[in-house]
């Protein structure tokens, strides 16, 4: 049987980042398995926001690591990884969001992340479509921005391959092989492959893989989506990313138009066991109850973006993000099986957190203490749950719906 030191399952941005970070260690043999094509699921559909300061302090070091890694990968590969360093603006239009923003300012200072307060006039100049009469405080983080999530995923994969990682696409992992409480390999569509270190980075399908290892992860697939207007100079070119937590919305430039993301109050959620293996064969926006989300949000968003009703939305992108009830990722071992690690449940932040997650998991797989505190991300923190039940999935959907309006909201999209 073929043998590798580490097998990473899932070739989205998380699997590619884990492989890249494992490959920093010389002499390890690493195999990345993807059953479709690299970055063909959530990682190519993301809006790509890379916001480093979250209202959830545990995420900030991971996101900061991603921001630094983007620069490192650009230098390492000698090519553009699609990052637009436009900065981000966050608008507080209520006392609650104002208090959050004060907390974020302190967090930015703790982590040496540039953070400024901006006046209304300065913001109006940069983002002409915003209506700011309700704004109480506005923050600007100049080193934030947005990235092409496909390009960044492929950059991790290419840099990993350049360091010796073997990547096999169109190879599905169908089972996890165990012996006396230890992982010993995987069964694949191309036969058995041995390894005492298997990493589950299977995105929305990660709970199905971990179930094969005896522990279905406490997460559920929840729909994320955004709309893009036709190119229009009224949107002001390459302006900063704008987050509007009072309106549960965000926006960024997109090839001359505006990309607008909305967190609806009842996010659609799905049973992971019903998902097809190929995301191209599935749309999470089906049925009459879903089609009008943009119109439903128009009033709420319209207080900050009055042009929403006239905007010519020409494109709609949706996909699945894996959410947990507390809006935090799942990182580390599962109970009862050694050698099996999980990097999943990214809660709409997998692009922004990708390098931090990859580094932490690589550290664990190599037997080191992660440099970040990952205790908040334990797989067993919800106790005994049925992650496929409607009740549990509703809790995950609520985490997405409420996230940008709670203290742990920051970078969820
Ligand atoms: C519309 C939308 C907008 C978003 N915007 C943002 C954003 O602005 N910023 C941000 O940080 N995040 C954003 N996200 C979230 C982000 O896209 C995800 O958190 C991230 O892509 C997750 O990466 P992943 O590698 O875990 O999953 P995926 O990209 O889904 O990759 C998982 C891979 O595992 C493979 N796989 C599954 N099971 C198996 C198996 N048994 N064998 C082999 N392969 C397997 C799948 O084929 C898939 O390719 C957004 C998501 C959506 C849907």
In short:
With 413 residues, the chain is an alpha/beta fold. It is built from 9 helices and 21 strands.
Question: Which properties best describe this structure?
Answer:
413 residues, alpha/beta, FAD/NAD(P)-binding domain, 8-stranded mixed β-sheet, 21 strands, 26% helix, 25% strand, globular, disordered C terminus, binds flavin-adenine dinucleotide
Topology (elements, then pairings):
Layout lengths: L1 E2 L2 E4 L3 H10 L7 E4 L15 E2 L9 H18 L5 E2 L3 E5 L2 H16 L5 E2 L2 H7 L10 E5 L3 E3 L1 H14 L3 E3 L4 E7 L2 E7 L2 E4 L3 E3 L5 H7 L7 E10 L11 E4 L4 E6 L2 E6 L30 H10 L10 E11 L6 E5 L2 E8 L9 H12 L24 H14 L10
Parallel strand pairs: 1-13, 2-3, 2-14, 3-10, 6-16, 14-21
Antiparallel strand pairs: 4-9, 5-9, 6-8, 7-8, 11-12, 12-13, 15-18, 15-19, 16-17, 17-18, 20-21
Helix pairs in contact: 1-5, 1-8, 2-5, 2-8
Bound molecules: flavin-adenine dinucleotide (FAD).
The site of flavin-adenine dinucleotide (FAD) has 43 residues, from helix 1, strand 15 and strand 19.
Describe what this molecule looks like in 3D.
The protein has 413 residues and is α/β, with parallel strands linked by helices. It has a domain at 2-48 and 150-220 and 326-394: FAD/NAD(P)-binding domain. The chain contains 9 helices and 21 strands. It has helices spanning 13-22, 60-77, 95-110, 120-126, 149-162, 206-212, 293-302, 354-365, 390-403, and strands at 2-3, 6-9, 30-33, 49-50, 83-84, 88-92, 116-117, 137-141, 145-147, 166-168, 173-179, 182-188, 191-194, 198-200, 220-229, 241-244, 249-254, 257-262, 313-323, 330-334, 337-344. A hairpin with a 2-residue loop joins strand 17 (249-254) and strand 18 (257-262). The termini are far apart.
């Amino acid at each position: 049987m073929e043998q590798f030191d580490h097998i990473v399952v899932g070739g989205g941005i998380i699997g590619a980042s884990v492989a890249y970070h494992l490959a920093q260690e010389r002499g390890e043999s690493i195999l990345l398995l993807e059953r479709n094509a690299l970055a063909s699921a959530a990682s190519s559909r993301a809006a790509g926001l890379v916001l480093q300061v979250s209202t959830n302090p545990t995420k900030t070091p991971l996101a900061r690591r991603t921001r630094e890694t983007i620069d490192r990968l650009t230098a390492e590969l000698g090519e553009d990884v699609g990052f637009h360093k436009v900065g981000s603006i966050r608008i507080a239009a209520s006392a609650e969001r104002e208090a959050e923003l004060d907390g974020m300012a302190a967090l930015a200072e703790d982590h040496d992340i540039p953070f400024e307060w901006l006046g209304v006039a300065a913001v109006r100049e940069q983002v002409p479509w915003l209506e700011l009469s309700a704004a109480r405080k506005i923050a600007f983080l100049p080193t934030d921005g947005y990235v092409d999530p496909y390009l960044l995923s492929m950059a991790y994969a290419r840099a990993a391959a350049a360091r010796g990682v073997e990547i096999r696409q169109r190879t599905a992992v169908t089972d996890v092989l165990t012996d006396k409480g230890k992982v010993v390999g995987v069964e694949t569509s191309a036969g058995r492959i041995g390894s005492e270190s298997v990493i589950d980075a299977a995105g929305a399908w990660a709970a199905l893989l971990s179930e094969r290892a005896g522990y279905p992860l406490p997460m559920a697939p929840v729909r994320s989506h955004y709309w893009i207007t036709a190119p229009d100079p009224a949107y002001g070119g390459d302006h900063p990313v704008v987050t509007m937590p009072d309106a549960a919305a965000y926006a960024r430039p997109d090839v001359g138009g505006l990309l607008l993301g909305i967190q609806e109050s009842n996010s659609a959620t799905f049973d992971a066991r019903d998902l097809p293996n190929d995301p191209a064969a599935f749309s999470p926006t089906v049925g009459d109850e879903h089609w009008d989300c943009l119109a439903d949000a128009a009033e709420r968003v319209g207080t900050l973006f009055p042009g929403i009703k006239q905007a010519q939305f020409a494109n709609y992108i949706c996909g699945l993000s894996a959410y947990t009830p507390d809006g935090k990722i799942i990182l580390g071992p599962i109970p009862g099986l050694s050698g099996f690690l999980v990097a999943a449940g990214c809660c709409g932040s997998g692009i922004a957190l990708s390098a931090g997650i990859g580094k932490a998991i690589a550290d664990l797989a190599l037997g080191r203490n992660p440099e970040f505190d990952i205790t908040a991300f334990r797989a067993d923190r919800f106790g005994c749950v049925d992650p496929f039940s409607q009740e549990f999935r509703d809790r995950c959907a609520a985490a997405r719906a409420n996230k940008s309006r709670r203290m742990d909201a920051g970078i969820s999209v």
